[in-house]
Every structure is written in structure tokens, then in C-alpha cells.
Amino acid sequence: GVLHEDLRLLLDTALPPKRKKVVLGVGDAKMGAAVLEELGVQCQTGGVVAELMRGIRLHFPALVRGLTAQSAAKAQLGLGHSYSRAKVKFNVHRVDNMIIQSISLLDQLDKDINTFSMRVREWYGYHFPELIKIVPENSMYCRVAKFIGNRRELSEESLEGLEEIVMDSAKAQAILEASRSSMGMDISPLDLINIESFSRRVISLSDYRKGLQEYLRSKMSQVAPSLSALIGEVVGARLISHAGSLTNLAKYPASTVQILGAEKALFRYRRRGRGDGGRGPRLKNKGRISRYLANKCTIASRIDCFSEVPTSVFGDKLREQVEERLAFYETGEPPRKNLEVMKEAVVEANEVVAEVKRRQEKKEKKRKKREKRRLEALAAAAEEPEENSVMETEENDVGAKKKKKKKKQQQPEESEAEPEPEENGVEEEEEEEEEPLPKKKRKVVVEPEEEEEEEKKKKKK
């Protein structure tokens, strides 16, 4: 219902001053209502206006100077992309698509690592079958198999390395004793190389799975911190993956969330029959606990989805409520009221949000300072060549002035040096002055001889 500033400016400049008699034709009823609310101009929507708008859209490149059909199509495509991008996600740091892909990859890695580890157990079990009972864990078994290699080469020196892998000195001693009296077959070096290579691949996959789990935890703490604090990162990610997105999970009622991740348990309960369920003192309140937990999960997902600054305060308070309800079913101790808990959560959440905003403002100020320094550095770098050129011209001028001064200083020195030879020796100057005179005489003598020779030649001709 808020009119855009550009559209408001356009209407203010295009409309006449007397707007009471003006009726605008608008193709969209919502836009007409917004214009009427903001500017007080009556807008008309209907069949004639819609046909006019279709015609304007069809012939828009011909009506606007400098606009072609190709550029209009590009503008429409860019507008559609930006609108779709804004509709899909508003904040880059709160993208739940990465959570869905991460939990799917995590499940796939669990299956693959389990399959590959069983293959390593079967393959290396021909050589050392007693190791399977001593080391039941898959990833640890692959590490031990890679470390041992040929069991006949295992000795007391390698006991420390085994203890580092299995984290138990008794278990490492048991592996050493079992290797000495094992009933396994001998193995060739080529087969051992292949087993070690395959074990190394399985170990790398298990290490990558740990890194992926940490990545999932960090993403869940950014996207859905309350849901993660309530039921854990992995279970919360599975709920988001089942729902398709955090928004869809927030739209679900508590009854749907209750059965969202319990399809297998529900079908197993149906296969066993109703007579097996609900036995024992702890299982008699299983339905109440599941409904209560589903209700709190729905509240946590809605808080995470629609809050501006996501925090884990509400998730912690909801978890405390679930634990108090469990204690109530077991011991009969009455839990706190929901209103009191939510008031405490709101106060703590406001404090946390204020602290987060304060940190964001500090980061923004630091970023602006860095940007300002960078711009100043660029401006200074741009001014340096100009200053260098000015300095060069100034240096050239100074150098020219210095040269002129030197010349002027040399000229008086020469003038001062000229009278010394007059005083010291006048004969040398006279000799120097007498030398060019014979040359002039020769020239004068030579010229009439040449003329007489030329005249004689003419006479002969």
C-alpha cells in the first residue's frame, strides 16, 4: 500500500496542479488504491483502461523515442529476474536451501561410509580377522588397518601409534597380542597397497563428513537458532528438509510437525499392532510429550522464520519448558507458566538484539572508514602524477635558472680574467692580432691575379 518514491515523483511532475478533476487510468486495482491513498487522485480501472494498457505495452517501443523492442525485452527480463530473486530469498545469510542440501549429503555420506567400511572389514579380514572384534567402529577400523598394514611387521615400537588412534592402551595391547597369534592368511604387497589406498579414501570421506557436520551446525545457528537449541541441529535440519523450506515448516500446524519425521515409526507401530505400544511407566505419556514437543517446534520455527535478528534465546527457553514438562510427568513438580517464560525470553532477546545491532553498527562504521581510506588513497595516487609533473617542471625551471646564473657568473669571471694578460704580456696579444693580417693581404693580392687570368682567357676565346 506504500507508493514508490519514483512513481510518486513521476505523478507529481506529470499531473496538473488541480487534481480534483483528474481521473487516472490504472491497469492494476491495487496500484489505483495506492495512488488514491497517497495522492488523493481518483483512479479508474476496468475494461477500457485494461485494453489501453495492453495497447501501450504492445506499442511501447514505438511510443518512446530511443527504445527498441530488444532493449524493452531485456528490461522486462531483468525486472522479472530481480523480482523473482527478491521473492525467493531476502537475506543471503539465511538461506535454508544449503541446509537441505547439506543434510541430504550427510545422509548419503553416512550410507556410503558404512558400505565402504564394511568392504574394508571384509577385505582386510582375510589377513587379520581378530581386529573386527577388537575395533568395532568403522572409521577407527580403517585407520587401524591403514596403520598396521602387514600384521607380521607390527611390534612394540608401533604401540604408541596404535594408542593415538584407538585412544586406549589396553585395546592397543590387545591388537598387538592378537597380531602375534592371528589365524589370518598371508597377504601380498600389491593387495596390501590396494587395501591401504581404499582405507585412505574412506578416512578422507569420514573427515569430510565431520567438516560437513560443522558446516551444517554453523548454518543452522544462522538460519534457525531457536529450532537448533530446542531439538538439535541435525534433527532441525531434517525437519526443514522434510518440509522443503523453513517457511513451509513455519506454516505447518503442530499436528503435521508431529508426524513429519515419524513416518517409519508410525508404520512400524501399525505393523506391530496397537497392543505393543503404550506399555511401561515412561511410555504412557509418550503421546503427550510428542504433542508438546511438536507445539514448541512450531513456535521455534515461526520465530526463526519471521524474526529480523535470529537468536537462540527463545529456543533455550522452549527447551527448558520441555524439560520441566518431562519432570512434571515423572515427579509431579508443576512447571512454570508459558506467559512468565515468554516474558523472560522477550527481555533477554531484546538485550541480545540490541547487542547484535550495536556490533553491526560498529562493523558498518569500520567498513565505512576502510572505504573512506581506500578512496583517499586512490585520490592521493591519482594526484601524485600531477604533483610529479609539476615538480619536474619546477625542477627544470630551477635548473635553467641555475644555468643562467652560472653563465652570468662565468661571464664576469672571463671579463675579470681578460685584463691579466694585458698587464702580464702585451706582446702575446700583439702577436695574436698580427697573425690574421697577412691572410687579408693574401686575399687582396690573389683577387686581382685571378681577374687578370680570367681577362686573358676571354681575350684568347
TrEMBL record:
Outline the extent of the Nop domain. 223-331
Q: Does the keyword Membrane apply?
A: no
Region labeled Disordered — which residues? 379-461
**Principal place where this protein is found?**
nucleus
One annotated GO biological process: ribosome biogenesis
User: Got a GO cellular component term for this one?
Assistant: small-subunit processome
Compartments in which it is found? Nucleus, Nucleolus
Which GO molecular-function terms appear in the entry? snoRNA binding
Q: Where is the composition biased (Acidic residues)?
A: 383-397, 413-435
Q: Write out the entry's keywords from A to Z.
A: Nucleus, Ribosome biogenesis
Could you describe the subunit structure of this protein?
Part of a large pre-ribosomal ribonucleoprotein (RNP) complex, that consists of at least 62 ribosomal proteins, 45 nonribosomal proteins and both pre-rRNA and mature rRNA species. Within this complex directly interacts with TCOF1 in an RNA-independent manner. Core component of box C/D small nucleolar ribonucleoprotein (snoRNP) particles; the core proteins SNU13, NOP56, NOP58 and FBL or FBLL1 assemble stepwise onto the snoRNA. Interacts with NOP1 and NOP58. Interacts with NUFIP1, RUVBL1 and RUVBL2; RUVBL1:RUVBL2 seem to bridge the association of NOP56 with NUFIP1.
The entry's family comment says: Belongs to the NOP5/NOP56 family.
Q: Which PANTHER family match?
A: NUCLEOLAR PROTEIN 5 NUCLEOLAR PROTEIN NOP5 NOP58, NUCLEOLAR PROTEIN 56
**Could you tell me what this protein does?**
Involved in the early to middle stages of 60S ribosomal subunit biogenesis. Required for the biogenesis of box C/D snoRNAs such U3, U8 and U14 snoRNAs. Part of the small subunit (SSU) processome, first precursor of the small eukaryotic ribosomal subunit. During the assembly of the SSU processome in the nucleolus, many ribosome biogenesis factors, an RNA chaperone and ribosomal proteins associate with the nascent pre-rRNA and work in concert to generate RNA folding, modifications, rearrangements and cleavage as well as targeted degradation of pre-ribosomal RNA by the RNA exosome.
Give the protein name, as stated in the record: Nucleolar protein 56
Per the UniProt record, the source organism is Vidua macroura
**Top-down, what is the taxonomic lineage of the species of origin?**
Eukaryota, Metazoa, Chordata, Craniata, Vertebrata
